[in-house]
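Work Package 3 (structural annotation) set out to generate three-dimensional models for the target panel prioritized at the project kickoff. During this period the team completed the workflow that converts sequence records into discrete structure tokens, so that structures can be stored uniformly alongside our sequence database. As a representative example, we reproduce one entry of 888 residues exactly as it appears in the project archive.
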Amino acid sequence: MQDSNYLKPFSFLFSGIIAVQAALSFRMGAGSLFLFSGSIFLLMMMNAFFYKNHHHRLSSHILNAGTILYIIVLCHKTGGFYSISMFMLFFVPVFIFVFRDKMDRIIYTCLGAGVVLVFYLGQRFNIPILLSDQLVNLSYFRLPNFLAMLVTFGTAMGLVMVGSDRTGDLLRQSRQECRQVRADADHAMTVKDEFLANMSHEIRNPMNGIIGMMHVLLDSDLDPEQEEYSKIVYNSARALLTIVNDILDLSKIQAGKLELDIRDFDLEVAVKDIVSLPQLQARQKGIDFSYTIDPDVPCLLQGDIGRIRQVINNLTGNAVKFTDSGEVVLGISLETPDQKDKKNKIDKDDEIDPIDDTRANLYFVVEDTGIGIKENQINALFDSFVQADLSITKQYGGTGLGLAISKLLVEKMGGQIGADSIDMVGSTFWFTLPLKRQAEKKKNVDLLTRDIKDCKILVLSDGATLGQNFEKNLAALELDYDQAFDETEAMEMLKWALDDGYPFDLVIMEAKESDSGAQNLGKKIKGHDLLKQTKMMVLSAIGQLGDARRFERIGFSALFSKPVKKSLLRDGIRAVLSRPDGAGVLPIITRYSIIENKKQNRRILIVEDMETNLLTAKALIKKLGFLTDEARDGAQAVEKHGHTLYDLILMDCRMPVMDGLEASRRIRENEKSLGMTPVPIIAMTGDAFESDRKKCFAAGMDDFITKPVEPDILAQKIRSHMRDDVQAFQDNGDEPARIEPGPERELESDEIFIEPEKSTDTSEKVQLEKAQCFNRALLLERFAGDREIAGVVLDAFLEEVPGLLEKINQALDDNDIDTVRSNLHALKGSAANVNADQLRVVALAMENWAMDNLVKGIQEKAANSDFFDQKFEEIQEAFHQFTREAKL
């Protein structure tokens, strides 16, 4: 509402009533009141004509102040509180509409009320200054005066009402216009999205044809020059298709139409595949690329791994692109409070553990030593079509969409993303993701149980011939297959085979130019009552995000991107044929699910006689996603190895019945006599001396790890000796050989203790002073904060130690120093695994003295009677103190 809407009409209205009252005053001979009314009349008229255009606020104050002053003087001259002129104070609330400021309105309303109160008090208490000796009696002209005020007041109120209606109409019109603008914007957005979708579809069709046929061309016999030119065309087409996909993704995200494809995945397997591209790019530029996954990060998770892959590829791709020397590092860990503070958006309610039984908050970081980014440019990095510097686009290329899409994707998945950088030093990009953990599975189902020799397969290609490599792989696998050249022929062949009583078990569709033919045939097969149980697999040369969900809904069992290696084709066929009939819609099989299934069905044999150490190893291996089996001594290990194919063996060295060294020798002999591929054996022992290492390698072991077992070292050892499934699909399809025992090597610095000549009382005292009775924090850290697993290991230790102490005491009585030493060794290792540091120190000291007695050939207890008794009492006291403090 503008001041000028009411200022002029209100000034004229009040000027009119003043003119009427000035005439009545003149008639009655009240000269002073006549002159005062005339002055106010002239002031109102001048205010209406001369001040409103340039001094809205001043004119408004003149109107209201003049009105109140005139009413005060008129009331004073005509009877005070009982004067009919008091009625004019009702004009004050009306005239305040010339003010937009609420404070001005309140001031003048209070001023009008104050005038009424002052006149009332003056009349009641006979205050002289508020009383007049000669009153002007307007009662003789009450009717015209009343009519003038009534007309003026009614007209003013009418103006206010009309103005309010006009303002309401304008407001409604404005709202309607806003709704129309919003509708037009939504329509424009819809038109834009439809245009982008249509444009993307129209571009994608010929691009798919180019990429598909380039696959066929590269699959044929080309000379080196032709192959080089073909690869240039292929890479250019892929680059153009990536830009088209980015634009379409951005449009979908902004329109809120992007759907996440939540699936089970193995983080370790996925990351190994994801980093293969930036590793290649970095190698081509001559820079280092590495990645790390913290051992406390759970591997089996749920999420849209396709979108996670897209974000990681964007960040690592940028890091490699803008780094000319040095390194690029990808790190994955659990989110910590410090990293939450880094986001500057931490809430009190958000201060919770980064992991529990149902979810895990992961922190991804990509660090590089590249050109860096100026501080004032970081905030704009995640905007669409923006790069830090225009010169960057000229030098490095790019559209500026990657980071914008990454930000939108991360936020869509419930995370946050950010960056830190120092110009010309390097950059750090990070993002967080809250991911669900996979539900506990009672048993890992092996997908690869069906033999492919007895299956009947129909192969369909959307080209005139099968791909050269595909045809070679079919022949090499000796599959019983027939070929169809179009959808109609394929359906006829399926029906004929069904009528003959020898139906096809599987239909493999090779999509070279477009996957529309595979989709159409899939819908026809699933729509046929007698053929809907037929399993289907598609091999696509033009795969894109969302294909898995689309083919899964149709009813396909597997989707693989070309080129497909022979081993993957074999495993894929076996996995599809192993699926039960009539099981409904199952998650579609991809090369990642096959790799994950293989990993989760990997079996590790843990050979350990101590329950505490056994539970510790099983808990740590379970977090890596592998199956475990156990043996309590070397003899059981040899027997189990003869009946079960293990992928790796963790072997303790000192055990009853048969020690680990002898067990390893017998396992190697059995493998050699039976022609088996040697299984990797890793020594897991509390002996960390150079002589122990040599004994382990001499017995046929492949590696060496000391107790207490550290999660990151154990994970590194297991992964280094396990076959890398991501790289396992070789052209010949043969399983790669196991790692053969290699030459002796020096131990890592974190694997070996400094071998003391003798543990003296002084050194032991120093160690005891530094050691804690129970290091709770370190124990929980070893098990990634999992109190349940740590509690199980701790309970097993508390149940196991009394038996060990009894055996040590009995061996001391029997003067059996060798038994004393072996049980002390077991106690020392178990104490280390539960971080009973003081107990470990005193057990180590007593073990060293027992070893000295064995070396020197002293078998008489009397020789060290006092020392053994004293040390054994210290061990008992340390254990009793530990039992009092060992609470999680």
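The chain has a mean pLDDT of 76.
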